[in-house]
Amino acid sequence: MSYAREQARPPDDGTVSVTRVAGYCLAITIIAAAVIHFAIAARYVEQYWLFGASTLVVAWLQALWAISVIARPSRLVLRSGAVLNAAVLLLYLVTVTTGDAIGVAPHNAGLSGFGDGLCAVLEAAAVAGCAWLLMAGVSRQVRRERLVIAPVATGAVSGILVSMALAAAGPVSAASTAGAAPSSSTFGSASSGSGSGMNMPGTSASATAIKLPTTSPAGDITMPNADMQMGDGMRMASSAPCVATPTARQQQAAVTMVDTSWRDTQKYQSLAAAKAAGYRAITPTGASVVHYLSPSAYRATVLGGPVLDYTDPQSLVYANTPKGAVLVAAMYITTPGGSTPQPGGCLTQWHVHTNLCLARGLNVVGAVDNGGGTCPPGSQNRVTPAMIHVWFVPIPGGPTAIDAPDQQVVKAAEQVPAPANGIA
């Protein structure tokens, strides 16, 4: 018997159809998915307008479908719900496995690994529920109280999970909502000169006096100085200056972060080993400084894995020197709007780039300058996800410096021993 007939059938005294109860639960499930899509739309707009537009379309279609399955249920409504949510789920799976499912710019998670995963689970549940209602022909009646109990339970669980997803995302940072600040610097490289990074007023004398020894060739950890270490086209990931003196625990955590990164990443001093592990260049090869990305490591972060994975960082940075490529840093990259853990407090700060032209897979193919300009075809000028370096060469500012000009990085790379590599 069809779902529509079940809805039209006069119920027994004090009973309702099982299919009606299931329909209410499906509607609540998809409303939860729509809420998440509405929440992340603003972040997607900052990545690329088409991401934001498509996310809003999906959210409205899901909301309207939820209303329809309650108000005028029919086999057509169930089929459309199965097709809609299966298509959205497929789009998500394509995005996290191959990237760039829509548009010309890379599509990264806008909320968090948990939020995106929750959406996928809710949509899979809706597809399965619609298929069951279409095929089962359930005619069993249950007491009318079930029409309240089951949807209320479904709503409570969905509400808790959605709240957790939104809380994990946190507020949209000023960096991710700011317009692109044009510059000519490249990914992960500050320009020389005064820079336009955020000032750090009010830093205490005890903070500026911090000097923590590490096992890294980069030397001692000192307090990051945004004025010295950030150039045009860069911003801090947080809109508020980080000026608090790190506690003893945070200082120890910063040392652990640097020492562990160096210990676990030394295997990638060999450029061949990095390539064999799946790292690929995302900035032009042969340049002074070249960034490599591990798609699998970044995908793990998108799916909710740790942002600070010291064994396999999302990105590695190499400097080309007369003796070949030298590993100069591990770079940890979060998802847009994702978590930016600071184990060392203000010793471990995140930044973003606003002037880069990004193509598929976070590839950097150019930059816009102070006069504006346009990006090459197939790329978009978008705010990058937040990132943080751990340096392995003695650049000014130490292992947790926010950034450094390419010439400083190359000069520092020439001072450390390294295996024989070709050009990165």
Keywords:
424 residues; alpha+beta; 2 domains; five-stranded antiparallel sheet; three-stranded antiparallel sheet; 13 helices; 12 strands; 43% helix; elongated
Short description:
The chain is of the alpha+beta class and about 425 residues long. It contains 13 helices and twelve strands. It has two domains: about 5-170, no CATH class; about 175-415, no CATH class.
**Structural classification:** alpha+beta
Sheet bearing the most strands, described?
5 strands, antiparallel
The counted number of beta strands is 12
- The N- and C-terminal alpha carbons lie at a distance of 66 Å
The residue-averaged pLDDT reads 79
SSE run: HEHHHHEHHHHEHHEEHEEEEEEEH
Number of domains: 2
Q: Within the largest sheet, what's the order of strands?
A: 4-5-6-7-12
C-alpha geometry = elongated
Give the quaternary arrangement of the chains: single chain
- State which percent range the strand residues make up: 5-15%
What level of helicity do the residues show? 40-55%
Computed over alpha carbons, the radius of gyration is 25 Å
Low-pLDDT residue intervals, each spanning 5 or more residues: 1-9, 99-112, 170-185, 190-203
- Count of DSSP helices? 13
Description:
This protein is of the alpha+beta class. The protein folds into two domains: 3-169, no CATH class; 174-413, no CATH class. 43% of the residues lie in helices and 12% in strands. The chain contains 13 helices and twelve strands. A five-stranded antiparallel sheet has the order 4-5-6-7-12. A three-stranded antiparallel sheet has the order 10-9-11, with no helix packed on it. Strands 1-2 form a two-stranded antiparallel sheet. α2 runs antiparallel to α3, α2 (18-47) runs antiparallel to α5 (113-136) and α4 packs antiparallel against α5. The chain is elongated and about 80 Å long.
